[in-house]
Amino acid sequence: MNYRVIDMDKYYRKDVFRHFSEDCKCSISMTARIDVTELVRYSKQTGTKFYINFLYILSKALNSRDDYKMGYVWQKNELICYDSINPTQYIFHDDTETCTPVYTTYYADYSEFYKNASDDVARAKETREYGLDTANHPNWFDASYISWLSYDSLNIELPDGHLFFAPIVNWGKYRDESGRLMVPVSVRLNHAIADGFLVANVFCLLEKEMDAFCKGTAVTK
């Protein structure tokens, strides 16, 4: 885990950061549907899992811009930017109706990510422990698949004033809408480090990375 400390005198959002970290501590979230028709087709044609392919694309999109890799060291009152962030998956167990968090490392290389994410899922299915360990995984973001529902909105609540900067991303089942497969995606970011543009931009980046992936930019496993 490597990071750099942000020079607040040079930070392009310094005035906004001060306001939303001191005067009006809050988060911003947004839900929208994105077209995953081509990714579903790609996954079926290559015999790969749509879920892991989507997780890879999401991780790549968030790692493409520093605004999504921010953190806060409260002991030193430092805003930091990680070199990279990694997804925390949540594996559901049908028998206990509980989840196990899975800390998966992001690799830009698709083949390496796919294999490691698949192995992580397989190991998580063998346990029923919750195993949350945020203290030792500061540069991990929540990536949770809500597989039972194609929803229209979702809101994640955190304690007022909590300076938690990692993205929280959820997505649901895809559904057919006029011949296209659409999936709901919800993105939550702290308002101190993100505004409406930056939240909306996550969806734009997802679509861009998905298009490149399906056209063969990524190397299949």
Topology of helices and strands:
Elements: E1 3-5, H1 14-23, E2 27-35, H2 37-46, H3 50-63, E3 70-73, E4 78-82, E5 86-93, E6 98-103, H4 110-124, E7 140-146, E8 168-172, E9 175-177, E10 180-190, H5 196-214
Parallel strand pairs: 5-7, 7-8
Antiparallel strand pairs: 1-4, 2-10, 3-4, 5-6, 8-10, 9-10
Helix content: 25-40%
Structural category is: alpha+beta
The SSE order reads EHEHHEEEEHEEEEH
Number of helices: 5
The whole-angstrom Rg is: 18 Å
Strand content: 25-35%
- For the terminal residues, how far apart are their CA atoms? 26 Å
Low-confidence runs: none
Query: What's the total count of β strands?
Result: 10
* Average pLDDT figure: 94
What would the principal axes of the Cα set say about the shape?
globular
Largest sheet: 7 strands, mixed
Features:
single chain, 221 residues, alpha+beta, seven-stranded mixed sheet, three-stranded antiparallel sheet, 5 helices
How would you sum up this structure in a few lines?
The chain has 221 residues and is of the alpha+beta class. It has helices spanning 14-23, 37-46, 50-63, 110-124, 196-214; strands spanning 3-5, 27-35, 70-73, 78-82, 86-93, 98-103, 140-146, 168-172, 175-177, 180-190.
Plain-language structure description:
With 221 residues, this protein is an alpha+beta fold. The chain is 31% helix and 28% strand. It has helices at residues 14-23, 37-46, 50-63, 110-124, 196-214; strands at 3-5, 27-35, 70-73, 78-82, 86-93, 98-103, 140-146, 168-172, 175-177, 180-190. Strands 2, 5, 6, 7, 8, 9 and 10 form a 7-stranded mixed sheet that branches. Helix 3 crosses helix 5. The model has no long low-confidence stretch (mean pLDDT 94).
